[in-house]
Amino acid sequence: MNFFKRAWLNVWAKKGRSVLLILVSSAILMFVLAGLLIRSAAVKATDQAKADVGATVTLSANRQAAFKKMQSSSSSTSKSSRPKMTLTPVKLSDATKISKLSNVKSTNVTSSTTVNAKSYDVVSTSTGMGSSNGGPGGMKSSASTGDTQIDGVTATSLTTAFSNSQSKITKGRGITAADKNTHNVVIENDLASQNDLTVGDTITVKEIAGDKAKVKLKVVGIYKASSTSTSASPMSADPANTMYTSYTLANTFKGSKYANTADSVTFNISNPAKVSSVKKAGKQLINTSKYALSTDDASYQTVKASMANVKSFANKIVWLVAIAGTIILALIVILMIRERRFEIGVLLSLGEARWKIMAQFFTEMLMVIVVAVAIAGAGGKFVGDQLGSQLVSQSTTTQTTATSSTGQPGGSGQPGGNGTRGGAGGPGSTTSTTSAKAADTDLDINVSAVDLAELGGFGLAITFLSIMIASGGILRLEPKKVLIS
Amino acid sequence: MLKTEGLGYWYQDKSEPLFQDINLTFEVGQSYAILGHSGTGKTTFLSLIAGLDKPKAGDILLDDRSLKKIGLTTYRRHDVSIVFQAYNLFTYMSPLNNLLTAMAITDAEHAGDKHFALRTLNDLGINEDLATRNVQHLSGGQQQRVAIARTMACDAQLVVADEPTGNLDEDNTKEVIAQFQKIAHDRQKCVIIVTHEPDVAAQCDHQYRLENKQFTQLA
Ligand SMILES: Nc1ncnc2c1ncn2[C@@H]1O[C@H](COP(=O)(O)OP(=O)(O)O)[C@@H](O)[C@H]1O
Ligand SMILES: [Mg+2]
After folding, report:
1. Residue of A10, A345, A350 with shortest CB distance to B105
2. Which residues in chain A touch residue B162, judged by CB atoms under 8 angstroms apart?
3. Using CA positions, which residue lies closest to atom 3 of ligand 1?
4. Nearest ligand, CA of residue B18?
5. What is the number of other CB atoms lying within 10 angstroms of the CB of residue A131?
6. Pairing assessment for the beta strands B31-35 and B206-211 based on DSSP bridges
7. What is the pTM of this model?
């Protein structure tokens, strides 16, 4: 393999040219690597988003079907009697069946109603612009409404308000599954301070429905609601007047026929990609004319879309740089072959095969590329970091704009290498994550052995192709014309 | 060993050949000079014999085998060794590596033998110090001696040279021609030198003149 030795002698003897070639190749490969790194980081981030970002399936009454039924009955009956839209409360037995499907991580039953304050004074909003806290959309089952909103849940930690930190427990504890069938309650901070209530105190409320009984409740925790409520509605009460209880207690307030029912049941899905399959399987288990299953994986879709953007951009970088790099190197090799046509002529006059001359050039470039891969491997992380954070902040901004324009309350998903925390989606949705860190927008850029191997592959391909493109110069070269003037 | 049969060559116009119907024979152990004015076609003739180009008419036979049959690349690798006016050495190598490279490409008997290469160079006045420097740091005469050493280190029976003394002074010219004589007589090769200098031609065993599209042997 004499061409190998020749290649080495040439690369070594022409150090200046070799260094220049190494620099050019390093620059090309650095961008290829940056693209590869961003792409693999985007894949990783998307995978992580699947694990981190919540997605939910909610079981509730089928409003559309009920509305249709109301319309048809209104046309058949006399116009004087107003038709009533009857919504069937969700049966807990149905919810239990769905909760046993695979990929269902946790289940939150919500049942809301109102009661009237007895032993305490409600907080009144002077502006009259108070708003409900955007909690589970409850069906107001009674025509008359009490001054205290009761949000019955399985656990407060499973609700949207608490999971995305709009509300926080400040004293005591939240409602948990263990509070089922108890009279434990979690009240708002403003209500507590106005009435001098603290954890352990007992309050009394008066039912609106049924026998209008007085019920004693035990305060087990105090929460602070975020004041930034969005949907202002003059009719609704101050958010401070919302109490959390177990859904069983809320059902009791509503009346005995509401036992083992719920307004809606929200299922947290462990793998957001599986949301639609859970919905499909769930539909088999319920009476779809009465109940509906809705999905919310907006946060996941946001992260997924923004990472897909990053990924496709990274792919474009890889291929554009690879193609541009091949062309640049090919041009350099073409010039190099011109400059060395005497040498090629001598080799041909000695009877060297043309393919071995090409092999010599290929080997020379390969020696250059090996060094360039090492340099690019060291520098690619830097370029990838810069480019990656630039890309992510851009695509995040785009995604946030897109999300907010759809009018969804709650922050958009914030993709990030070690975070990819998704904020809340629409009302009634619940995310399993706790915080949305706006500052954490870095992709996790790391040069792995696989990345380096892939880079080496690209280097090899670029070298091979550029030599192939330039090889016409060797194949056409006539030693007589070169050597004999 | 080498024979031309009805050899003819022209560049553009067939009716204006450089030479036509040439029948010559070259033997091992002999040196031949080809004289002629500038532009008569000496170099063109040599390029055919060296296997760098194909004849337009006739044929060239090596030991009765046509070069077409042998294949020009194989012929150049094994059977012919060329010395150029411009030396044409590998500029990025030392004289030693120039020899080793040529020996490796031509599958020479001594391929890879560094000591043989150094000895060959030393015989031509290139000592080890010169032999391991970059070849561009040598004088013209020294470089041409390296080129001659290269033909000696390879096993080709046929050595062709195009104006090998064209860039050399009187002393170096004498030395180089003496070396070509040695190659022919001591190493039993066939040496064909193209030159326009009668003094140089006079030192060879046989002289031909290319004139009016024909080769004529001088007495
Ligand atoms: N590649 C070529 N194309 C056309 N004409 C050529 C070419 N090479 C040489 N010639 C012409 O052929 C003639 C012979 O050239 P050459 O063999 O180099 O002569 P010499 O070596 O005797 O000086 C010259 O007139 C030259 O101009
Ligand atoms: Mg000439």
Report:
1. A350
2. 484
3. B11
4. 1
5. 18
6. parallel
7. 0.69
What is the DSSP pairing of strand A90-91 with strand A104-117? Answer: unpaired
Q: Look up residue A380 and give its two tokens.
A: 């690619």
- CATH code, B182: 3.40.50.300
Supply φ then ψ for residue B40, to 5 degrees: -85, -20
| Range(s) of the domain holding residue B193 | 28-43+76-217
Q: Cβ(B37) to ligand 1 under 6 A? A: no
What would the pLDDT profile of B164-180 be if each residue is shown by its tens digit? 998 888 988 998 999 99
User: Is the C-alpha dihedral spanning B61, B65, B70, B75 positive or negative?
Assistant: negative
The string of pLDDT tens digits covering residues A242-279 is 999 999 999 999 888 888 899 999 998 888 778 888 88
Question: What is the tens place of the pLDDT at every residue in A205-253?
Answer: 999 877 788 999 999 999 998 765 544 444 456 888 999 999 999 999 9
**CA torsion A224→A228→A231→A236, rounded to 10°?**
40
Q: How many domains, in total, are found in chain B?
A: 1
CA B174–ligand 1 middle distance (angstroms): 27
**CA-nearest residue, atom 21 of ligand 1:** B43
Element (H, E) at B82: strand B80-83
Alpha-carbon distance of A353 to B134, in angstroms, equals 25
B67 domain-assigned: no
**What is the average pLDDT across B182-202?**
93
How close does chain A come to B170, measured CA to CA in Å?
23
Domain ranges of chain A: 3-51+303-484, 55-297
Q: Is residue B94 part of a domain?
A: yes
Give me A435's structure tokens.
Answer: 């915080």
Is there an atom of ligand 1 within 6 Å of B40 CB?
A: yes
> Could you tell me whether strands B158-162 and B80-83 are parallel, antiparallel, or unpaired per DSSP bridges?
parallel
Residue B180 Cα to ligand 2 midpoint, Å, equals: 19
Chains A, B: CB pairs < 8 Å: 65
Strand pairing class (A104-117; A214-225): unpaired
Q: Is B42 in the pocket of ligand 1 (CB under 6 A)?
A: yes
Among candidates B78, B82, B101 on the partner chain, residue whose Cβ is nearest the Cβ of A6: B101
Domain assignment present for residue B195? The answer is yes
For ligand 1, whether the C-beta of B44 sits within 6 Å is yes
Structure tokens at B128: 């080890």
Residue B166 C-alpha from the chain's centroid: 14
**Å between A19 CA and nearest CA of chain B:** 16
Distance of alpha carbon A4 from alpha carbon B101, whole angstroms: 11
Is residue B10 situated within a structural domain? no
CB contact under 8 A, B88 and A353: no
Provide the 10 A C-beta neighbour count for residue B144: 29
What percentage of chain B's residues is helix, strand, coil (to nearest 5)? 35, 25, 40
Q: Which atom of ligand 1 is nearest to the CA of B40?
A: 22
Nearest CB neighbour to A342, from listed B88, B93, B104: B88
